[in-house]
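Quick one - first record:
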Amino acid sequence: MNKKTGLQVIMVLVIAIISLWFYLKYFNKSFKDVKKTPIIEKIDENQNSTSTYIDDINYVSTDAKGNKYQITAKQAEIKIENSDVMFLREVVAFIFIKDKDAVKITSNFGKYNLKNYDTIFSENVIVIYPGHKITGEYLDLSFLTNLGIFTTNVIYTGEKTNLFADKLEMNLTTKDTKIFMNDAKEKVLIEGTK
């Protein structure tokens, strides 16, 4: 063997030894560390496995008489054990009664029944229809009885009147309203406006 070939063989062996040493020192150790490290799954504590969440929902229903009900929400939660009911956040609803003015309802929260369209609105509830505004904390809207029952801090504002009461019942078709107090000894407070 000549000097040149011997030198090349020695260089290849030196490179191989350095490469093996480099591999064992840096790469082999990190692979062992990865194998020893337990895998930890991050679980979001806010996530609930018993519910499904839907963002930006919109439901529209129309009855046989041509009346329409539309409800939208920023977010809906549907519980697995009762998928016919949705719990809503940042709710806006419209009731369009045929040949009548539309009614707009807003609230922070709602509970909507997908089968019968009955809806409970809660927290900062506002009902607006031409010439009228009703605010309160709780509104139970039933399409079966065709009635909306407003309770808790009810304030009715008309064109010339403000009424403060415990309870207000409104017929959804005719918009006829009854305003009263829970205690018969108390009276509804009425203020005139200019």
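second record:
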Amino acid sequence: MVDLGAGTEQDFYGADAKGKTVLVSVADVTKAHDQAVRAAAAGAVAVIVAPAEPGPSGSGVPAGQTVPVAHATYDNAAELKALLAKSQVRIALKGVLESGYTYASHFTDDRVPADLAKTVAVTDFAKIRNTYHSDGARRLGAEYLPAWGPKQWTAIADGQPLYQGTSRDDYFLAGTGVSYMPSVTANFHASAWTVADARSTFGTPGRTYTRSWFAGPTRLSPYEFGPCVFCRTDVWQKLPGGLGADNEPTHTLRGLTNTWSFYLNGQPITGFGQLVPEKADYRYVLDQELATDVPGVNLGRQLRTEWYFSQAAPTIMAVKDCDTAFIPTPKVCEPMPVVLLDYDLPLNELNQARAGLPYAFTVDGARAKGWTGTAAMAGAKVSVSYDDGATWKSTTVLRKDSNSFQALLRHPEIADTNGYVTLKTEVWDAAGSRTVQTITRAYALK
């Protein structure tokens, strides 16, 4: 090991760091990017970052590091420096890509207990088997876990780096009344591509749950807090917020920009103010794309959804609570007869499917929240592209049930593709409503 002070350019100048572990002491251990870069350039094999002053240390992952970076406390670093002053110090570092398990915090009602130690057994916990998907290769992201005690208005949050393309078992102490709202970002240094779960409480010890994150394909989120989505009143219309989603129904994905286009009887209109009272044909188009480039995010960065439907102005209050949830208060409210799409694709942890082999996946047609009529679908069509939509190939579509269909295809050899599969899906009902959705690079091939 070699101690290089604060790790400045001057500290590294003339120092022999090749093949060694570099110890640096900095004011903010979460900002050691420059030190890691200098250490790698000097031929170091690892870096240990410690705080320059006594106190809480924390940790951080330098962006783009090419050598392992570990963290030490102020006291640990002082001990290492004392040993180094006496003789040569050899360091053995062992890293674990992902622990494979975590244990969540817990709270005690009403007061801080006299004894902060608590003895628990595995049977006191609820177990969540998490699979963190990635896009063709493992990537370093982060997980955030806000937690609320039974009488708390504000959350206590914890965050940590998280490799994706892995699985992990999380244990939550059950029956405490604590609620959690986890979120996962795709890149440790950028929060532009983040999946958040709904707030939940684990009341039953011993139960096992499964949850996946970033499982492809990216699709428009069906999750809605209000009484309806895609509903029309006499004073406004309610449309989706444009959040994305993975394959968990309570997940929302932030990071997409949204551009709406509206058409009445084939002609463009500006929106609600140009809807007509008589029954007419409408086409609503939502173009979504990743707002900023996020390293490691290669899939689902661009979506286009087109809803075709016919409707007249509403005449009754057909949606419960529609007249109390939004302002201005409407007198009438009816859902739009649109078709929503969802998918179930068998993909690995890297959102990949095998090239050169047969493949099958499920497409579902559904109705928006607030709909009370039939959910049955009349038919479906699915096409795939291996060149980002320049050319298309139809799949064989079989009916599974009243609103689900199975697409059957055979992937070409990966050399005959760009490494990705773009999906175009169309589902329609017997009344003439249909939805066409294109997901560019929905999943990867391997």
